[in-house]
Specification:
heterodimer; B: mainly alpha; 10 helices; 85% helix
Chain lengths: 234, 225
């Protein structure tokens, strides 16, 4: 009789660490870092905006890796990983767009503009919502996993092309101010801003992996229930 | 050689079926013509604005009609469990994919041959001499559409609500094709500098090559049961 392990330790530790970093990160972002010279207080949203989109990118990369591994080795856990990463990636992308809108309204004067990076993020969201829909609309779990993996790979391959085309089509976003080739990061950004950004990025990563471990556990439990039901039916 | 042979026979089978039933092509023709009318009513396109809007409208019509065709693409294989029979046959899976892509491409090229001149007539465009160039450029975009479309048409075969799922998955992935084709046609139509169209042309060819290769590689997984 296999025992269902409950709240495994690493998952819990990850959650507590994430919470700690979020609290410290909030302090650094809201109190410690100075307001932006041009944008004022609104700019503070950057401290969660950049971490959330970077985490979303990471997530879609994990979908790609999980999909490749699944098609290659056919292990259920790779598929569970890809599915979990896609779900959380959608969540973080949606958050990024909402945060961007909240920042865009006072800064640009509009909630939405057809700028390249915005459009790209929205397309990313649509593609991976499509991924989740495809999976949920295919009855057979094996088929859903394979179809999802194929879409995960094709979608990932397409992202650079979409990126290029949308970029040529239009660019209006503010140029990147931290990773600039001509200047080192510490030259044009206040150091306490960088610290706040780094702490929040770590906080988001921890939160992300905590959520991922939870979602993977849900996936594994579903898997176990299905096997049990199949055994019962046989 | 065996691969080429199989592909040609499969393609011939699809063409023969289409010739006898005429289901996809007729539906696509009528839908395309209907769309041109709807565009006119919706946008009230005056002759002086028509040339400006032509690339976008043309390509919208192609994409919508093409999606309609994709729904039918594996219909024959779905009925009577023909897909299983096809998979049991000693044929390379990739041959099935390539033949379907070319079948779809032929359908859409035929559609464009009719729809493009019709657009010129209905919207009183005068630049007839650029029509062949527009057609050639459009064909490159159509290849990209067919490659990804065929793959997704097969991918969604076993999904519920396939009719809505297919365009939902397909259209966002086709953004590079849509943008590159519309920009390219626009440059052709205003007789712009060819070097302007060059990056778009590269993008289009790159897209076609990447996804044709990827399609051949993953198709085996797409149709396995």
């Amino acid at each position: 009789m296999e025992r269902v392990e409950r709240n495994s330790r690493p998952g819990k530790t990850l959650g507590i660490l994430a919470l700690l970093f979020i609290i410290v990160g909030l302090y650094f972002a809201l109190v410690h870092a100075p307001p932006d010279a041009y944008q004022g207080e609104v700019q503070r949203i950057m401290y969660i905006h950049i971490p959330s989109i970077l985490t979303a990118y990471l997530s879609f990369f994990i979908v790609f890796v999980g999909s490749c591994l699944y098609l290659w080795k056919r292990e259920r856990r790779d598929d569970i990983l890809a599915n979990a990463a896609a779900e959380i990636g959608v969540l973080f992308t949606a958050l990024t767009i909402v945060e961007g809108s909240i920042w865009g309204k006072p800064t640009w004067g509009v909630w939405w503009t057809w700028d390249a990076r915005l459009t790209l993020t929205a397309l990313l969201l649509i593609i991976f919502v499509g991924y989740l829909m495809l999976r949920s609309l295919i009855e057979d779990p094996e088929r859903a996993a394979v179809s999802g993996a194929v879409l995960g790979i094709i979608g990932f391959l397409d992202i650079p092309l979409i990126h290029m085309s949308v970029y040529w089509w239009r660019t209006l976003h503010q140029p990147p101010s931290i990773l600039r080739p001509d200047k080192a990061p510490w030259d044009n950004v206040h150091p306490s801003m960088l610290i706040a950004l780094a702490i929040n990025f770590i906080a988001f990563l921890l939160l992300y992996f905590y959520l991922l471990s939870l979602r993977i556990r849900v996936g594994e439990t579903e898997e176990r229930i299905r096997t049990k039901m199949l055994e019962g039916a046989a | 050689m065996a691969f080429l042979n199989q592909t040609v026979w499969l393609l011939w089978k699809d063409l023969l079926l289409e010739l006898r039933r005429r289901e996809s092509l007729l539906a696509m023709f009528f839908f395309g013509a209907l769309l041109l009318f709807i565009f006119h009513f919706a946008l009230d396109v005056r002759p002086e604005k028509a040339a400006e809007m032509a690339p976008g409208l043309l390509w919208l019509a192609v994409v919508f009609c093409g999606t309609l065709g994709l729904m039918q693409l594996f219909q024959a294989e779905r009925e009577n469990r023909c897909l299983e029979a096809l998979l049991l046959a000693p044929i390379d899976r990739a041959a099935i994919f390539v033949s379907k892509v070319f079948f779809n491409l032929i359908l859409m090229a035929l559609l464009e041959v009719v729809i493009f001149p019709l657009f010129w007539v209905l919207f009183n465009l005068t630049a007839w001499d650029r029509l062949p160039m527009v057609f050639l450029y459009g064909l490159l975009g159509t290849v990209g559409f067919c490659v990804v479309g065929t793959l997704f048409s097969a991918l969604t075969l076993s999904a519920r609500g396939r009719e809505i799922l297919l365009p939902l998955l397909l259209l966002p992935l086709l953004i590079p094709v849509v943008l590159a084709t519309i920009r390219g046609i626009e440059i052709v139509l205003r007789a712009g500098d060819f070097s302007e169209a060059l990056p778009w042309l590269h993008l289009l060819i790159g897209f076609d090559v990447i996804f044709f290769t990827a399609g051949i590689l993953v198709f085996e997984w797409v149709v396995e049961s």
